[in-house]
């Protein structure tokens, strides 16, 4: 997999935005592919709903357009760093499933960072930044 913690923590304003739902008009159409039923339609309206949607399940696959996802993250959520990281992860993926797993890891880190920033706890630091500073 990738090193998902390569994201610097968001500032307080971005963290607050990441923890809110986007307006209905800005939702991202998505679904779940569940054999033998097919695609079960839905949508994504927040970073937390994206996290839940991408969570691995043994009997279904996330139906998320990974090509459009970085643009939605940038435009609807306002997170350019996460959007760039998602685009890079998707481009490095060998399959849709691999891409979903890579993006899931990135979203998990960003969600933890946003929650930490919103609660005032120390931020989740990137692995690279911690290594440079010599801190865990």
Number of domains: 1
Strands ordered across the widest β-sheet: 2-1-3
Which class do the helix and strand fractions yield?
A: alpha+beta
Task: Tell me the series of helices and strands, N- to C-terminal.
Answer: HEEHEHHHH
Radius of gyration from CA coordinates: 15 Å
Low-confidence stretches: none
The largest sheet is: 3 strands, antiparallel
* Beta-strand content bin: 5-15%
Amino- and carboxy-terminal Cα gap: 21 Å
- Look at the structure and give the mean pLDDT: 88
Note the total helix count: 6
How is this fold's topology laid out?
Elements: H1 12-18, E1 28-34, E2 38-44, H2 47-54, E3 61-63, H3 69-77, H4 80-91, H5 96-119, H6 127-133
Antiparallel strand pairs: 1-2, 1-3
Notable characteristics:
globular; alpha+beta; 136 residues; 3 strands; 3-stranded antiparallel β-sheet
Tell me what the structure shows.
This protein is of the alpha+beta class and 136 residues long. The protein has one domain (12-133). Helix content is 49%, strand content 12%. The protein is built from six helices and three strands. The chain has helices at 12-18, 47-54, 69-77, 80-91, 96-119, 127-133; strands spanning 28-34, 38-44, 61-63. A three-stranded antiparallel beta sheet has the order 2-1-3. Helix 2 runs antiparallel to helix 5 and helix 4 runs antiparallel to helix 5 (96-119). The chain is globular and about 45 Å long. The model has no long low-confidence stretch (mean pLDDT 88).
């Amino acid at each position: 997999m990738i090193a998902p913690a390569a994201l610097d923590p968001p500032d307080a304003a971005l963290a607050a935005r990441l923890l809110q739902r986007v307006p209905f008009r800005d939702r991202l159409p998505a679904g779940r592919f569940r054999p033998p039923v097919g695609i079960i339609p839905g949508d994504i309206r927040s970073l937390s709903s994206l996290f839940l949607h991408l969570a691995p399940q043994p009997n279904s696959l996330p139906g998320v357009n990974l090509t459009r996802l970085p643009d939605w993250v940038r435009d609807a959520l306002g997170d350019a760093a996460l959007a760039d990281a998602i685009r890079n992860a998707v481009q490095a993926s060998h399959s849709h499933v691999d891409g979903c797993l890579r993006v899931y890891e990135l979203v998990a880190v960003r969600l933890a960072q946003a929650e930490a920033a919103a609660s005032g706890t120390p931020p989740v630091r990137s692995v690279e930044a911690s290594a440079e500073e010599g801190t865990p």
